[in-house]
Specification:
mainly alpha, 2 domains, 5 helices, 0% strand, binds protoporphyrin IX containing FE, oxidoreductase activity, acting on paired donors, with incorporation or reduction of molecular oxygen, iron ion binding, heme binding, Cytochrome P450, monooxygenase activity
């Protein structure tokens, strides 16, 4: 699907451009003692590695982590959340059980990673939504870097 590949390459170019602008904006007000967000954390890593050129981490490489997070983390999550809302609306019994587990385990506080192991019904629901919606059925494009013979 060459047209898909060229679209992805074009989007990747645009994303990098946006990221570059945002990082430049953010650098104007950066203070190491007061990290505000991930870009500041990465800026701290860039500054640290400038002091040690042998580390091999260039600013471009470190900031490309932001491209990964934006490219891989936004549309995937927002589309999944849309499916979650749609399917919970269509399945009120499941919605009530999810809600009850959230009330039970979290109450009014924010969730943390450890809570996952206590929230079997919510986790099962998320997995079921992923299976049902299949938002990325062909996954990312992969390409062999050299010819390989199996068996
Ligand atoms: C429901 C949400 C998500 C779905 C359905 C999803 C799906 C996928 C899929 C199918 C792949 C390709 C795996 C492969 O074939 O190699 C992938 C890779 C990746 N995802 Fe996600 N993803 C989600 C959320 C996120 C989030 C929130 C982030 C980061 C903030 C993220 C970061 C990545 C990265 C960095 C890779 C590349 C991993 C590698 O091969 O090195 N994803 N994801």
């Amino acid at each position: 699907m060459p047209w898909k590949v060229s679209t992805v390459i074009e989007l990747d170019k645009q994303t990098k451009e946006i990221r570059k602008q945002k990082v430049e904006e953010s650098l104007k007000t950066y203070t190491p003692s007061n990290p505000r967000h991930r870009a500041d954390g990465l800026t701290a890593a860039v500054k640290e590695d400038e002091a040690d050129p042998s580390s091999g981490f260039t600013a471009e490489r470190i900031y490309s982590i932001l491209d990964d997070l934006i490219g891989a983390g936004f549309d995937t999550l927002s589309t999944t959340l849309n499916w979650v809302l749609l399917l919970l609306t269509a399945n009120p019994t499941v919605q009530r059980k999810v809600h009850a587990e959230i009330d039970d385990v979290l109450g009014k506080r924010q969730p943390k990673l450890d809570d996952k192991s206590k929230m079997h019904y919510c986790m099962a629901t998320i997995h079921k939504v992923s299976r049902f919606a299949g938002i990325n059925p062909l996954s990312l494009p992969h390409d062999a870097t050299k010819d390989t013979e199996l068996k």
